[in-house]
Design brief:
Blueprint: E1 3-7, E2 9-10, E3 24-30, E4 33-38, E5 49-53, E6 65-69, H1 71-74, H2 79-82, E7 88-93, E8 100-105, H3 115-121, E9 132-137, E10 145-154, E11 169-174, E12 179-184, E13 193-198, E14 210-211, E15 213-214, E16 231-235, E17 245-250, E18 255-260, E19 268-277, E20 287-289, E21 295-301, E22 304-309, H4 326-330, E23 335-340
Parallel strand pairs: 1-19, 6-10, 10-14
Antiparallel strand pairs: 2-23, 3-4, 4-5, 5-6, 7-8, 8-9, 9-10, 11-12, 12-13, 13-15, 16-17, 17-18, 18-19, 19-20, 21-22, 22-23
């Protein structure tokens, strides 16, 4: 297996400072920039924020945008969650309306549904508090971000997802055929899964369950140890009539999985190695290989994959080699990596 060596760029703010602990969990290409979303373990000033990232420089194009919440959500069954800091995982944009972003919640175990709402939304076939798909309304300029609709997810009982709040949905992707895919980090059997459901213009006009189905996609699982999926995006096929591919981030393995939606090809495993840059005036080498990266975001655009890592606080300082980079690792600053689309992904061995 050939390893691709990816050189990173530190995400920096408009003052050219590396970011402080944004806990990257969502990354999506929209209108020539990448939109970033973090989870609720981020530094407080970075929670509930969208970041607009320049894909060439990894610098923020604007100040962070606060995500607000409409009154109808705050006064509904899930209002208590959205009045605090939801644990957002994954980010994508609506292919029918590019003024809509879509995210999903994961660990909501710090909130309990009221008895009335539990009776309505308690049959999730997963966690006690439901996974929520979230509509974020904006405009083409991304001058604001407001949550205007929420729908709970119901998994098929046969999937045996399990009641593990921190092993929920971590990836979302739209294809070009009206489907949205949801990547489960891992189920009760310690295996990742990909679910899917139809998505149309009436999707957010409903407030009942989104009943997802198991895609039954073959995944490259060598054993029963931890091989979670931590983000997902869609890669069109160069062949007319082919439904395309899903690009999955396998964080624990430093791998990218290329999954054929038609299921005619076996999944392709792209092994990765990640390198952090040092400062130009440093006496250290120009790059140092990272020992703990934890990539949790992927955005596909044209023939390039853009990746971002989520600093695992317990182990991120393990990366410190060059003293000049110690501050960045100690403040849990993320990096952006790029990877060109590989033609081998499209001609891999047939099933």
């Amino acid at each position: 297996m050939t390893t691709f060596n990816a050189a990173g760029k530190w995400l920096i703010d408009q003052q050219h400072q590396t970011l402080v602990n944004p806990q990257s969990s969502g990354f999506t290409w929209r209108h020539n920039e990448i939109i970033h979303l973090g989870d609720n373990s981020a530094a407080e000033h970075m929670r509930n924020k969208l970041l607009r990232v320049n894909p060439e420089t990894a610098q923020l194009n604007a100040a962070p945008i606060s995500i607000t919440v409409s009154d109808n959500i705050l006064n509904g069954c899930f209002g208590e969650l959205f009045s605090q800091y939801p644990d957002y995982e994954a980010l994508t944009w609506d292919r029918l309306d590019d003024t809509v972003l879509v995210t999903v919640t994961e660990d909501s175990s710090f909130i309990t549904l009221s008895p009335e709402c539990k009776a309505r939304y308690g049959v999730t076939n997963s966690t006690d508090y439901p996974t929520l798909l979230v509509k974020i309304k904006t405009d083409k300029a991304l001058s604001f971000a407001k949550i205007t609709a929420v729908r709970p997810v119901q998994f098929p009982a046969s999937a045996e997802v399990g009641n593990a709040p921190n092993d929920g949905i971590e990836g979302l992707a739209f294809d070009n055929a009206g489907n949205i895919y949801l990547a489960l980090e891992q189920n009760a059997a310690n295996a990742p899964m990909i679910f899917q459901t139809k998505y149309d213009s009436a999707f957010w006009q409903q407030d009942d369950y989104v009943k997802v189905q198991d895609s039954a996609f073959a995944l490259p699982l060598p054993d029963t140890k931890d091989h979670p999926i931590n983000d997902l995006d869609y890669l069109p096929s160069p062949k007319i009539g082919h439904p395309g591919y899903l690009v999955a981030v396998a964080r624990n393995d430093d791998q990218i999985w290329i999954i054929d939606i038609s299921q005619h090809q076996r999944p392709f495993v792209q092994q990765m190695a990640y390198y952090a840059p040092t400062t130009p005036n440093s006496t250290c080498p120009a790059y140092e290989k990272m020992v703990q990266t934890a990539v949790e975001g992927v955005a596909v655009h044209s023939d390039t994959l853009f990746l971002v890592n989520d600093a695992w606080k317990k182990h991120y300082p393990d990366n410190i080699q060059c003293p000049d980079n110690a501050e960045n690792f100690n403040k849990f600053a993320p990096l952006m990596f790029t990877l060109p689309v590989n033609p081998l992904w499209f001609i891999h061995q047939q099933k």
